[in-house]
Every structure is written in structure tokens, then in C-alpha cells.
Amino acid sequence: MSPQLDKDFLLEAQRRMVRIRLFDERASKMVKRGQIPGTVHTSIGQEAQVVGACMALGDQDYMTGNHRSHGHPIGKGSPLSPLMAELVGKATGVCKGRGGSLHLADFSVGSLGESGIVGSSIPIATGAALSSKVLNNGKVALAFFGDGAANQGNLYESMNLAGVWKLPVIFLCENNLYALSTPAHTVTSGVIASRAAGFDIPGVRVEDGQDFLHVFNAVKTAVDRARSGEGPSLIEVITYRFNEHSEGLRLGVDYRDQEEKAKWLAKDPIVLFRDYLIKEGIANAGELDELYAAVEAEVEEAFEFSQSSPFPDASDPYLNLYTEPFEVFA
Amino acid sequence: MRVEVLLPQWGMGMSEGLISLWFKKVGDSVKEDEPIAQVEAEKVEEELTAPATGVITEILVPAGDTVEVRTVVAIIETA
Amino acid sequence: MKSVMSYLGAIGAAQREAMDADDRVIIIGEDVEANVYGTTGAGKARAAEGDFLQRYGKNRIRNTPISEEVIVGAAAGAAMTGLRPIVDLSYSSFTYLAMDQFVNQIAKNRFMFGGQASIPVVFRSAMFYGLNTGAHHSDRPYPMYMNVPGLKIITPASPSDAKGLLRSAIDCDDPVLIFEACPLWPMKEEVEEEEYWIPLGVGRTLREGSDITIVAISGAVPEAVAAADELAKEGISAEVFDPRTLVPMDVEGIMKSVAKTGRLVVADPAHQTCSAAAEISALVAEHAWDSLKAPIKRVTTPDTQIPFSPALEKHLYPNRLTIAAAARSILKVPQPI
Questions:
Q1: Model confidence over A54-64: pLDDT tens digits?
Q2: Considering the domain boundaries, does residue A315 fall inside one?
Q3: Do C84 and C233 lie in a common domain?
Q4: Active site annotation includes C287
């Protein structure tokens, strides 16, 4: 095993996956109880895909994402309390209550923002890679987007620009096989990963996105390539969301096949990784139970924080609209 | 401990819901996630489930009434 | 020390100053390396000081593919992570291709993320109207962007205004769109060669007057001045005010002028509906009702598309004759035969 993948690193991987799971399970309950306004889109089932990618990035590296947002900053190490407070719209939220679930951002961990418009943040990540290139500071950027966004034109504009300028960016497609209720293959011509070849950049399909190490290794290869100046990569990770597209969504029709669902639910990335760690003698059941309990306590603390924090003061609707604000004529 | 039962927002477009039927009455015991009322909203017919295990001590919205999402519709007293 | 500069030359000078002052300033856009749209300096300045590619190199001056959405979005992402890009989008009509990035990313990120982001980027584009380029190249889209909170917009109408405003825009930490009127590109005047900044949100009075205020935007400014000079021969004292910045607008300056004259014509080359003129008229009606002696009149381009034929296009835009006629009609003075 490479020196980087030591016990601490692997336990941190499990810890972040469990954080996403328990945070999203709690968020889901909070939506059902009317405690979170609007809705949330959980990453339950996709933890290995998210954390495998995030942990292949360095702390200084950048990331953008989409509406299935909580897992991204959590995967990159963002503390849970300000995220939970943001979901509830409190002043102590990471975006001061202005963003909510769909627009989380934590610049302190390189999370440049999740986007409610599918695909819209891909050019932003491309731009972060451009600044890295011009400033020559060695940073890498990663854009998370789904199988639905893989059909937005700006992905191809971004791949072309990144390819021709050799920008250090990784385009990571979280293919959970459905864009809301639409099966990906019914609206996608060809294989997403194969589209990279047209831009002369590497395109990799990770078939088992439930396996942390498979995802990590693929993204790490792309990160190393980017950091060494060789340019961008496209990685398509096949995974599955265990819950509905968004919490509380009731479409009245079962658009996912029961057998298919059962097959994927049997591949719980957290259970799989736990089994791996125990089998390889990296950690024992007791340590992993302790890790789980510690995260439960973190989530409980984040919930309490979100409930006890104040709402933001509504008196300045223009707060943070500009860095140099101006008086509205009255 | 006093736990508020709020009408959830099922889907981004839902702004209100009609409580069509209460399955439980004041004094009944309920378990967390057990269905306690039938709700009709514009696109869905759904079951409201209990957010905690305990006893229903108040029902604040009678069957037949329409309320906004996140309105408190009942109170559960937990052990 | 002053020298004669064209509008385009002044734009080049402002960019050169900014590129010299800060290594984080870069220029990206289609055909910028060969200076096809005169971005990187014009005429004497270019010959004397070398073109931008020679001066700053390929790292900081970059030709982009024809991909407006990623050009605009990547400039925003770069601005959020340490650069200060200037983006040349060539024709203003091309900005629409990047509308999602302008509206949903650039205008919103600082606000939505609670102040974590700052987006110091300038987007340049030129409105090629009045030049027989047809409907796809002749748009004056600034009113659309005025309705998007989070952006700042400048429309300088002279070389000296262009130099000072563009420099302020580049040094500003907020995203700024500069709409240049292509008919103004060859306009020449004496411009200060040393660095200077014109703050955003401050207008300029080009002619002082007491009978009527003419507020003019962009390419309508020199026409308004010509109209005022013509009216002066008829004994009408017209004040001409150019806000220079549309967001934030120098509403105070407009109100001061209307308080003095009591009458207002707004000349704006945009289409009538929801034009900058419409907003200015609404503001004056709301806040200066007691000063007004007559209804407000707008002189704008009609709500139709721009035809190609030279016989059909030119007269559609506000010009000195239509502006002067609007003024006379408010003053209830007969039009000349």
C-alpha cells in the first residue's frame, strides 16, 4: 500500500463517508418534519464516489458541485455545524443563511460553491484551474456534476478550453443512472467517459463507484496528471442514490426497477469499506463502532447548533451583494 | 419533552396542505415514523408521520382544514 | 501630460496601465492576440509601446475558443481564486450565450455564499449599432443586465471617460460590464496620459442649462450635446447630463438637474421598453414630482429589430434632430419648418 494510504487516512475516509450518511439521514428527517424549509438532495448511497474524489484532492485544491450538495463540502473536510445551520437558514450558517442547501460553499476548504443550475458551476472550476495555471501555484480544481449535466453544452466548452490550455481540472461525472426521474441512457447518446477522446483528454469510467479505493485511485491519477501540467481529465463514476431525487418528493410512479434498486442497496459503500478495513486488519470492529458513535455525536451537536442559533437580521437585504456597496436612491 | 409536529413541505412547489383525516386522537400513543394523519396537497396525497415516540397531547388543526407548510398541527409529549 | 487619443486608444491605455500595475490582470477573448477589435491598443500607442502580446506574453494575453459560456464562467472562477481578468466578448450581442453564467453565477455568488466570494472581473463588449451589421450584431443589451442585481455597468461616451472608468472598473472588486458604443470608437480628444480613475456612480454635466435637462446614455451623448447646441441658437438653454455608470447610477446628479430645470428628456439608444430611459423616467417621476413642470419624454430606439439596409437603419436611433424635437415639444415651442 502506498505510504499515503495509511491507517489514519483510511479511517478519515470512513469517517467522512459516515459523516455524509448520518448528516444526510438527519437532514432527510428534518425535511419530513418541516424543520428544513424547501428540500434537500441527499448523497446517501454515493458516499464512496464523493469521498473517494474529495480525498484525492489536497486541502488547497478547489471544488465546485451541484444540487446534491452536502456530501461535497463534507467530503472535503468542512465542519458539520455551519452546514447544518445553513440548511435551516440561520445566521451562523456557512453562507450566513443566504444560500441554503442548494448553494452551500465553504471557501476555507476550497469549496467554491454548489449550484442549483445543473452544470452551471463547471466553468467556475475551469476558471479556478485557469488561475492556478496563470499564477503557477500548483493547485488543482475538480468539478462535480451528474449524468444529467453531462448533456449541458458548457461541459464540452469547458473540456475543450481545459484541453487546449492544459488546465489542471478534473471533470467528475457522478453518474447515478437517473436525472431526477429520467433514466440516463434514454437521454444520453453514447458513453459519457468516451466523450473525452474527442478532446484528446483521458476519459475514465469507474464501474464500481461504491468502492472507495477504486474511485480514489482513478481521481488521484487524474490529480497527479493535472498537477504535473499535463492537463484535464474526465472521470465518470457509476453509483446510485439510495433515496429519492429530493427528500419529500412524491412522484406517484416508481420509475426505478425494484430489482435494480435491491441490487444497489446491497452495495452500501460504508458497509463495504468497513468490511475491507476489518478484513485487511487495518481497523477492528470496536474502533469502527467508536468512529461511528463519534460521528453520531457530531451530527447531534450540529443539529443542536442549528436549532439554537439565531436567524439572520433581515434589515439589510443588500448585504454582500457587492464588495463595494452603494446607497439605493430613496 | 414537548415535540411539535409540523406539516412538511413535500416537494419544492408545495405551499399548503389539507388535513383530510386524523388516524390518531388526543391521548393516543404513537411511535416515531408511524402514520398519524392523511394530507392532501396539490400534487400528492401523503401520510403525515410522527417525528417522535410519545403521546399526542394536542391536535391543533382539525380534519378538513388547510394550512401552510411548516404550520404546527399537533404536539407530542415524549417520555 | 495630455495627448490626443481615440475612444479605442483610451480603452487600450487603461488596460495597459492596469496590466502594468498588477500581474494578476489578464486579458482573454476571441482574437485578442492579434488585436482584431482594437482591444489591446490602437494607432500611435500600439506602435510606440509594442502590442500587448509582446509586452505581456501568452500567459496573460490569451486567445479563447468561440465558447462564450465557458469564457465568462472561467473568468469568474479565475476571479474567485486570485486573478483579475478582463474579458473581451467582442460584440454585445454575443453576451447572451453566457447569460446563465452572468445571472446565476457572477451576479449571485458573492451574495449566495454569504460574502465568501469576490469576483473582480471586467467584461468588455461593443455595441455595433448604426453600422449596417444587421440584427445579430446591433444589440444594445445593457437594460437586461441592469435588472440583475450584483452586476455593475458602465457606458462611457468619450475617450477620457472611457479611460478613467475602465481603470476604475478593473480595480473594482465587483464584476463590471462595460458596454462600448462602436460608433464612438473613432471619437478623439485630449486625454491625460497619466493614471487617473473616474469613480463608478458619478455622472458628468456636458452642457449647463436652465430650461430643460437632457439625460443621455452612451452613443446618444454626443447627439444630445449637438441638440443642445442647436437649441441654444433658438434661445433654449438645455443642460446635458451623462450618468456614465448605469449601475450604480448617479440619480442624485439627475435629480439636482431636474430640480433646476423642471423638464426632462431622456435619450437612450436602447429599445424603448424597459430601457435605461424607462428607469430614469420612473425615478424622476417618483422623487422629483414637485419639480416637474411638464411630462417626461423619452427618445429611444423603437421596439423593433434592426434592419440591415442603410436606408432603413440609421434614423431608428436617437439623434440630434429627434432629441431637439422632443425638447421643443415639452417646452411647447414650435418645431422648425
A1: 999 999 999 99
A2: no
A3: no
A4: no
